[in-house]
Amino acid sequence: MRLALDTNRYTDLCRGDSQVVEIVESADAVWLPSTLAAAAVVAVVALTPLPAAAQDVPWYKAVHAGCPGEPGKFHPCALKKAKTFNPPRTPDGKPDMQGYWLDGPGSSQNIEEHPESYGIPGNPTLIVEPADGKIPYQPWAAAEKQKNFKQYQDPQGQCSPSGVPRVMYVPFGSQILQIPGYVVILFEQNQASRIIPTDGRPHVGQNIRLWGMDARGRWEGDTLVVDLTNSNGRPWLDAQGNFYSAALHVVERLTMVDADTIHYDATIEDPNVYTRPWKIAFPIRRNKEPGHQQMEYACHEGERDAQHATSLGYKTYPGVVPPK
């Protein structure tokens, strides 16, 4: 069962902090620049519903695998519980993470703690290190983030790939598939996919730059560790203009805590932009809806708001050149 909205009758003016943008009517899709892009996706396009008992409970207030959902509390609790959980196994003996999983924590709008505003749900910060829950920007980069928000369209709002780690916490669900030597994650959002080799091959050459980075996985006990390099520096971390450069290095860790919960964390470092490495963590929850199928998400089909946002003065984000 899916939610839908007649977008032919959905025209409104929405204000997001320093921005005032007009939602453009479209029979196929509605997209917004910068701060409202992810919120529009949540509000306008179909979402996979949670079980009835959980629909009124925000993910961070719910209990997952016996742990509180708020990232700062879930992270240490889930790591402890994972030590005693024996996950189901694939034929080659690896933890079996296959199946459909619910959409991420919905922090694609803002990775840091933020209150509810203008129809955008409030969320706690996904950042568990440093303890203040803030991205540890270098001074020049903190100013650059503010410029991004005021001048550029959110790349994801233009149907560009979300990048890693953002693709892991965008709205809509995902499917994990495993075969010997590979883990594959298929996302409903924008038909995105991640193909993660686990056969020990090296990264591609540094001259190759990718929206989704170059992934190389390995198993450390029951944890899937994914090392990512070769970013093109073009995606954002969220719709607030939080960013990184092409020097980004991400290490993800996915560990099953129980049969229906994955503990996800990602260590993020970029010496050109941040003062130190930092970490996000959150639960990934199994989708147990009977007969669930992922639907086609044709982002570009009928999309007209990118040119509308351009007419309002928002530019396409070109990436950043850090100061020397």
Describe this structure in words.
By secondary structure, the chain is α+β, with helices and mostly antiparallel strands. The protein has a single domain (7-316), classed as Calycin beta-barrel core domain (Lipocalin, Beta Barrel), CATH 2.40.128.20. Helices cover 12% and strands 25% of the residues. The protein contains 4 helices and 16 strands. The chain has helices at 37-44, 71-82, 139-151, 305-311, and strands at 13-16, 19-22, 63-64, 67-68, 99-101, 127-129, 152-153, 174-179, 182-187, 193-197, 214-220, 223-229, 249-258, 261-269, 278-285, 315-316. It has a 6-stranded antiparallel β-sheet, covered by helices on one side. The chain has a 4-stranded antiparallel β-sheet with strand order 5-8-9-10, with no helix packed on it. Strand 1 and strand 2 (19-22) form a beta hairpin. The longest helix is centred in the middle third of the chain and has 13 residues, at 139-151. The radius of gyration is 19 Å and the shape is globular. Residues 1-54 have low confidence and may be disordered.
CA-atom Rg in angstroms = 19 Å
Q: Which class in CATH terms? A: Mainly Beta
Beta-strand segment tally: 16
How many helices? The count is: 4
Major sheet description? 6 strands, antiparallel
Strand content: 15-25%
Structural class: alpha+beta
Q: What do we call the CATH topology?
A: Lipocalin
- Provide the CATH superfamily: Calycin beta-barrel core domain
Instruction: Give the total of domains.
Output: 1
The side-by-side strand order for the widest beta sheet comes to 6-15-14-13-12-11
Overall geometry:
globular
Helix content: 10-25%
Cα(first) to Cα(last) distance is: 53 Å
Q: SSE order, as H and E?
A: EEHEEHEEHEEEEEEEEEHE
Which architecture name does CATH use?
Answer: Beta Barrel
- The low-pLDDT segments are 1-54
Mean pLDDT: 84
